[in-house]
TrEMBL record:
Limits of the SET domain: 2-235
CDD domains in the cross-refs: SET_SMYD1
Any one Gene Ontology BP term: methylation
Name of the protein described by the UniProt record: [histone H3]-lysine(4) N-trimethyltransferase
PROSITE patterns: SET, ZF_MYND_1, ZF_MYND_2
EC number: 2.1.1.354
Length: 476
């Protein structure tokens, strides 16, 4: 680990600093997980070795719980699954994801010792567990998990003290990282990456984390000086500073003192009214529209969860009619309405509407997010794809290029999404050239392309986990 060093970060405790200069898109370090497990909810639909979502998976013949793409994945996952397999068989049921993860970590440590590779900067014993900070309800859940863990943990495995066991539950509670599927679109599991646990939070960070081919990469978002602290954001910046601070306090047990929180930077934009022909709405009008938007969001979320997509469209449209003339395009509730509406309409194949709202969303995001924020890149990608589907090739190509530039920094050239985007960029570039030469040929060619290449990115809306925006997975 020549790129980073542990240091005492002022006011934050232990942190990581750069030991040389970095530029946007540099990989500061890449780290494999100590262990990772599939979420309970999706354990039958993803491969337990490579975490791909797949329609046809093969079951482990022994425990009937683990699923794999094929023999290769099964063999690759066997070292990690071996003890779990036997434990599940004799336990007679499937323990929850937290218990499965802690057990896997402990089997691995028992076998290999606490330093698993020479790039590991801390031992797992040294990681914070924050158990003394936990609230009563969480402590109760922890006790239940430990109780079940003891039933699950085989007598033939090495025995540990309750303190040791609770330490690991505490560690994954505040440091379990969401593992996403092959496209990075859905959180499908949770894993532990010890070096990542050392990277402190900042609401306006200089790094981002991405899972790429089974390893996490810490990537630089811009120029970083030698000696500068490396930071990532644990929560989505699209919350007000007060809400971010609340989330960070309850989930990660610290008070954020970053510049953006201290000075409430961009909070005003996130609840702003829109000026129409030089006239600003009154505070009262903005407040009323904000409250209305909030109520509609709740109804919309439940309709979306139930898969009632036409109801989602109805609710969003009704809301927009009332609030768009009052609220700015940076208003965070308005942005959520647009985001959901464009996603659902793309799924229902109303591409023109989907494109319009995706574009509005990107315009708002551009004023709020860091220019190299991954969520901004993903939003631009969605806007690009929907414009392309709607036949608006010029805007579509522009958005795809914008998304590609951001993802080259946040995801890097080898990430599957960046590769998809690159293919998309070449396609839209060619189509744009054709469009400028001969519109008729362009349209007939596009129709053909749409027919035999349905875009894989347009999955069912409810499968998108908001948790992908949060760095660490919250245990349930
Ligand atoms: Zn696999
Ligand atoms: Zn098995
Ligand atoms: Zn902050």
């Amino acid at each position: 680990m020549e790129n980073v060093a542990i240091f005492d970060a002022p006011g934050k405790g232990r942190g990581l600093k750069a030991t040389k200069e970095f530029w946007a898109g540099d990989v500061i370090f890449a780290e494999p997980s100590v262990s990772a497990v599939a979420f309970d909810s999706i354990a039958e639909r993803i491969c337990h070795s490579c975490f791909r979502r797949q329609d046809k998976l093969q079951r482990c013949g022994q425990c009937k719980f683990a699923h794999y793409c094929d023999r290769t994945c099964q063999r690759a996952g066997w070292a990690e699954h071996k003890q779990e397999c036997g434990a599940i068989k004799s336990y007679g049921k499937i323990p929850n994801e937290n218990i499965r993860l802690v057990a896997r970590i402990m089997w691995r440590l028992d076998k290999e010792g606490s330093v698993l590779s020479d790039m590991q900067l801390v031992t797992l014993e040294e990681l914070e567990d924050h158990i003394p900070d936990m609230q009563e309800d969480d402590l109760k859940d922890l006790k239940v998990d430990i109780h079940n863990f003891l039933d699950y943990w085989p007598r033939t495995s090495k025995q540990h003290t309750i303190d040791d066991i609770s330490h690991y539950f505490g560690v994954i509670n505040c440091n379990g990282f969401s593992v996403s599927d092959q496209k990075g679109l859905q959180a499908v599991g949770v894993g532990l990456f010890p070096n990542l646990c050392l990277v402190n939070h900042d609401c306006w960070p200089n790094c981002t984390v991405i899972l790429n081919h089974g390893k996490i990469e810490l990537r630089s978002l811009g120029k970083i000086e030698e000696g500068e602290e490396l930071t990532v954001s644990y929560v989505d910046f699209l919350n007000l500073s007060e809400e971010r601070r609340r989330l960070l306090k309850t989930q990660y047990f610290f008070d954020c003192t970053c510049e953006h929180c201290k000075n409430h930077i961009k909070d005003d934009l996130k609840l702003a009214g829109v000026e129409v022909d030089g006239v600003k709405p009154t505070e009262e009008q903005v407040k009323e529209a904000t409250d209305y938007c909030y109520q509609m969001l709740e109804k919309m979320d439940s309709a979306r969860l139930n898969g009632n997509y036409h109801e989602v469209v109805k609710l969003c449209t009704a809301c927009i009619e009332k609030t768009e003339p009052v609220l700015a395009n940076t208003h965070i509730y308005q942005l959520r309405i647009w985001s959901t509406l464009s996603e659902v309409q793309a799924y229902l194949q109303y591409f023109c509407e989907a494109a319009e709202y995706a574009r509005k969303m990107v315009e708002g995001y551009l004023k709020l997010y860091h220019p190299n924020n991954a969520a901004l890149g993903m939003a631009a990608m969605r806007a690009g794809v929907t414009h392309w589907q709607a036949g608006e090739i010029e805007v579509g190509h522009g958005m795809v290029c914008k998304a590609y530039a951001i993802l080259m920094v946040t995801h890097g050239p080898t990430h599957p999404i960046t590769k998809d985007l690159e293919a998309m960029r070449m396609q839209t570039e060619m189509e744009l050239r054709m469009f400028k030469q001969n519109e008729y040929v362009y349209h007939s060619m596009r129709d053909a392309a749409l027919k035999n290449k349905p875009m894989a990115m347009m999955h069912e809306p409810k499968s998108v986990d908001e948790g992908v925006k949060n760095l660490f997975h919250r245990r349930k």
